[in-house]
Amino acid sequence: MAYDQFAYVYDRLMSDVPYDEWMSVLLREKEHFQVNGTRLLDVGCGTGEWTVKASVHGFETVGIDLSESMLSMAQQKAMEAGQSIRFFQMDMAEAGELGQFDLITIFCDSLNYLETEEAVRQTFTNMHQMLALNGLFLFDVHSVYKVNELFAGQTYSYDDGEAAYIWNSFEGEFENSAEHELTFFIKEEGDLYARFDEFHKQRTFTIDQYKAWLSEAGFQVESVTADFTDKEPSDMSERIFFTCTKR
After folding, report:
1. pLDDT in tens, 147-187
2. What domain of life does the UniProt record list for this protein's source (predicted)?
C-alpha cells in the first residue's frame, strides 16, 4: 500500500478525533499552573494534526514519533500551514537530547503503545529530564475499564463509500492489554478498492501504578481526571488524564 493512501485513510478516519478538546486541556492547565514558557514537545505526534494546531496557537513546537511515514505527513502539514516545526523520528522510551521544554504532551493514548513496564518507566524518566523546572507534563491513557470491557472481543466498522475499515479487538497477552486487527479499504478508480491491514497492540496500567512510576521519575502528580473533564475518574471512565509538574 502506497504511503499517500495510508496517510489519506488515517487522517480521513481520524477526522472526528477531538483535537480541540486536547488543546483546551493544555491551555487550561498551562494557565492554572502559570507556565509562561511556550516550548512544547509533542510525543507520539503521528501525522502532526495536533502538533500543527499547537504551533498555530503560538507554541514553539517539536514533534517526535516512531513512524517515518507519519512524520513525512506531519512535515507536509506544517509546511502547508506555514509553521516552523521540527520533527524527529524517535522512540519515546529512548527520547532525549532535544533540549528543555516548558510543556510536554503525550496525547491520544500514544503511551498505551508501549508494551512493557520498563518502557513506560523509561519514558517518564526521559520526559522528566527534558522538562524545565516548574514545567508541565500532560498525558492521557486508556482506562483499564476501556481496554478490558470496550476493546477485548469487540468488532467495529466504518464505511463512507470512499473509505472503510473493519476493526477487530482481542484480549492481549498481558494483563490490561488488547490487540487490534484492522482491515482498510480505499476506493480507487471505478469500483475497485485497495486493501491493506494493520496490527496494533495496546497496554494500560492502573492509575496507582502510573502514579508510582511518575513519582519514581521525579514528577509531582497534580491531578488525575477523566474524559476531558476536571472530574476524578470513575469505574467506567474511558480516558484518564494526568497532570504532572517538575518542582
Report:
1. 999 998 999 898 888 888 899 999 999 999 999 998 888 88
2. Bacteria
User: Among all chains, which residue has been given the C-alpha cell 504551533?
Assistant: 55
> Where on the phi/psi map is residue 153: left (φ > 0), alpha (ψ -120 to 50), or beta?
left
Pairwise CA distance, residues 41 & 51, whole Å: 9
Q: Compute the C-alpha angle 37/53/217, nearest 5°.
A: 50
Residue in this structure with the C-alpha cell 492554572, named with its chain if needed: 32
Whole-Å CA distances, 76 to 30, 49, 59, 69, 81: 28, 11, 18, 11, 9
Nearest to 59 by CA among 16, 23, 28: 23
Write the single-letter amino acid at 103.
L
Report pLDDT digits (tens) over 21-75. 999 999 999 999 999 999 999 999 989 999 999 999 999 999 999 988 889 989 9
DSSP per-residue codes, 111-168: GGG--SHHHHHHHHHHHHHHEEEEEEEEEEEE-HHIIIIIITT-EEEEE-SSEEEEEE
Residues present in the chain in total = 247
